[in-house]
Amino acid sequence: MFEVEQKFNEEMRQIYDKSKELTPPYKPTRFKKMLDQYGGIETANRLLISSSKIPDGFTELYSRGPEALKLTVEYLILKPEYSALFNPDQQEIAKKRLKQLNIELP
């Protein structure tokens, strides 16, 4: 399980790095601070429970094109290799947010 958690943490950090490469660039500084403070899994947990509405980061990424939403925490946690890290309720929140914007699930 440790290897899966480590890989998830790495992919969470890649979200930040890849977001800066978008056109126009997006620099999610609050997200980066959370990653530095809590790590990837706890950051994902906090972002999932933080609100029932679509998060601001979603809007920012969507404005750069629907494909950019593959850089969301919600998209990442739905990847099959990370299913053991999140409970069904968390996965359902992620699915709902992505489906609201007609994003194909991983």
Short description:
Keywords: Plasmid. This protein has 106 residues and is mainly α. The chain is 59% helix and 0% strand.
Describe this structure in words.
The protein has 106 residues and is an all-alpha fold. The chain has one domain. It contains 6 helices and no strands. α1 runs antiparallel to α2 and α2 packs across α3. The radius of gyration is 13 Å and the shape is globular. The two termini are 21 Å apart. The model has no long low-confidence stretch (mean pLDDT 93).
Question: Which characteristics define this entry?
Answer:
106 residues; mainly alpha; globular; plasmid
- The whole-number mean of residue pLDDT values reads 93
Structure annotation, total helices: 6
The largest β sheet comes out as: none
H/E element sequence: HHHHHH
User: How helix-rich are the residues, as a percent range?
Assistant: 55-70%
Number of domains: 1
Q: Structural class, judged by helices and strands?
A: mainly alpha
Report the end-to-end length measured between terminal Cα atoms.
21 Å
Tell me the strand percentage band.
under 5%
The gross shape turns out to be globular
Number of strands: 0
Oligomeric status: single chain
List the topology elements.
Elements (H helix, E strand, L loop, with lengths): L1 H18 L9 H10 L1 H10 L6 H7 L10 H5 L10 H13 L6
